[in-house]
Amino acid sequence: MSSGILPPAPSGGPVDDNAVVDSQLLAAQTRGGGFWQDVFQRLRHSPVAWIGAVIVLAFLLVAALAPLLAPYPAESLPGQRFITPTDIPGPGEMAEFPLGLDRFGGDVLSKLIWGAQASLQIGVISTALGLLGGMALGLLAGMFGGWVDAVVMRFVDILLSVPNLLLAVSIAAVLGQSQLAIMIAIGASQVPVFARLLRASMLQQRGADYVLSAQTLGLSRRSITMTHVLPNSVGPVIVQGTLTLATAVIDAAALSFLGLGGGLPQTAEWGRMLTYAQAELAIAPWLAFLPGICIAVTALGFTLLGESLRESMDPRTRAR
Q: Please, what sign has the CA dihedral across residues 237, 169, 121, 129?
């Protein structure tokens, strides 16, 4: 009986690339550790993953420790007395306010720190809502197939026919100006991506040998789906969730920039800071640059970490 390990190619003969990949994957599995341990082992040796992880960790720490790190409360205006129509103190001009003041007299450093907390809340909650909604639809389509799959996917196609940000703006405008409306709007706009991804992954798993063996043993469709197919299909969805966090942070800033985030004008939120920085671009350009840099760096961190995770889970890159 064959041991299942591919024999080496004859000397001088052609080499099958797929056979090489399969044999390398098999060798990696026989060394022990399992799939996820191999994934994290590759992440540990990826400089890009480390850069992304450091950025994300710094963002999380700043957001979580905002009450301790911020010199002033979120919407306080400690520098109102220093603001004039033609002059706004900038970075380095006052020791009391290291990054200067905004048009309302708020400390820019404090607002950037509190803005990280607001962006984290919106990004995580909206992504979680989109993930749950998308996985529910994808699970229905992947489990039952047939007319259920057709109905669910046509609904998803309708959502996909509307541009992501436009759909989020429409939902936020209907729900009203508030952070909750932004979370629901961004989450709803992400549902189609997660639904299609989970459905495609489940359809691929349904044709695997272990599923056919389970059906032969008489296991129910629900049991096969929930205990075998679904756990083996969520990997790509987790990776997409990491990447979507970056998009959620950008979308949250965009919706706040359009005035859909609610709150007071001096609310400490990166998108809102960009909105009110437009009028002072000529005399205080840092009011736009600083929150813009925070948004870009945070999105970059989540993107780098997500892409590294995706590559580590790719069988062909893992076999190298």
A: negative
